Amino acid sequence: MFVRLLAKTAPHYSTMVGKNPTPSIFLPNHLDDVYQSVQAIANVVGVNSLAAVGLNTDEWLPFFKRTIFLSAALHDIGKANNHFQRAVHGIADRNDRQPIRHEWISVWIAMQPGVKKWLMPSVAGCENCWLIAMCAIAGHHPKADRAAPTDRCFRSDKISVLVEHDDFKKSLRQIQEWFGFEGLPKVEPVVYSGAGDQTSIDRFIKMLH
Questions:
Q1: Are 80 and 165 in contact (CB under 8 A)?
Q2: What is the pLDDT along the chain (209 residues), one digit of tens a residue?
Q3: First vs last Cα of the chain: how many Å apart?
Q4: What angle (nearest 5°) sits at the alpha carbon of residue 85, between those of residues 167 and 81?
């Protein structure tokens, strides 16, 4: 359905094909941009940031870097869902708001047992680092009236991750390369299968807690 997965709104993307659109509009490129930027920023200000809050940099800098690098690598992976892609391609109905925001789907992907097992070496098995990274991902678009999803967010429409798309696979391969992982995890694509799928709703809400 989608030739490329977009990270930014580009309703006229189809007219850009063959005209060298900015690479950063594509999901794998955007994730790479953010990951490389966070690495550069951490290398410049990481020591001073920790010292400013009274933390021993020799002890805490490795934890700090592992946590923010994982957050950056994953923060927008949830944009690879059918609702978000319809929106940024400009083909969603005007009244078709995304039932679950992409940052929460990023967390949902990461929290799948097989995916989490694959990712945990990036934080050297530190569960606290993992939880902080998940909070950073979930809250990277803060807004006063933007609460965590509830069961009322799930409507009749199916919510799925486009796990077979080349850009999703490329995003995973990037993460594999950045952290030196072996293989790729199997990612469950169905967040919610539609009206009546209470099991998926319960599983999603449980994840939030």
A1: yes
A2: 789 999 998 766 555 555 667 889 999 999 999 999 999 999 999 999 999 999 999 999 999 999 999 999 999 999 999 999 999 988 887 666 788 999 999 999 999 999 999 999 999 999 999 999 999 999 999 876 777 888 888 888 899 999 999 999 999 999 999 999 999 999 999 999 998 899 999 999 888 77
A3: 34
A4: 70
For the chain, the three-class secondary structure string (H helix, E strand, C coil) is CCCCCECCCCCCHHHHCCCCCCHHHEHHHHHHHHHHHHHHHHHHHHHHHHHHCCCCHHHHHHHHHHHHHHHHHHCCHHHCEHHHHHHHCCCCCCCCCCCCCHHHHHHHHHCCHHHHHHHHHHHCCCHHHHHHHHHHHHCCCCCCCCCCCCHHHCCCCCEEECCCCHHHHHHHHHHHHHHCCCCCCCCCCEEECCCCCHHHHHHHHHHHC
CA distance 84 to 89: 9
- Give residue 208's identity as a one-letter amino acid code: L
The Cα 13–Cα 17 span in angstroms is 7
The rounded distance, in Å, linking the Cα atoms of 87 and 81 is 10
